[in-house]
TrEMBL record:
Lineage: Bacteria, Bacillati, Bacillota, Bacilli, Lactobacillales
Entry superkingdom: Bacteria
One Pfam family hit: Usp
Designated name of the protein: Universal stress protein UspA-like nucleotide-binding protein
CDD domains per record: USP-like (cd00293)
UspA domain boundaries: 2-149
Family, as annotated: Belongs to the universal stress protein A family.
Amino acid sequence: MEYKKILFGYDGSPESMAAFDKAIEIAQRNSAKLVIANVVKRQHANTESVSLGFGVAETDVDIKETLRSREEKLEVLKHQAEEKDLSDVEIALKIGNPKSVLSFDLPKEYGIDLIVLGATGLGKVAQVFIGSTASYVVENSAADVIIVKN
């Protein structure tokens, strides 16, 4: 199958960087558009939270700083992709639930036909309590999904 629009979900983990390399490789091979995305999940300040995988921001001050920091990182990744001769690269920084944004919102917005994510390496117990974004996307997205292990 030939892919024309590829969504890469970045979460800062070593696994997502392995997935980034794979997304670039597939985009090069298919002369495809690459959308580099990060989704920040907003939590209320009075909620205890653990930051695993896709980011968690707790207050308005945190969210502004988190968004600024994430946008800078996405720009670096965009530049790295363009250095590898990809001419159609875009970044998408969203606030929301990473599972639904990566499964439904971004694929619909960009007409994505392939999603590339890194395997988080969470154990079965951790997945039961917090869920696996990658597993959710595999099960729910209409687009093809590739999970890259580091």
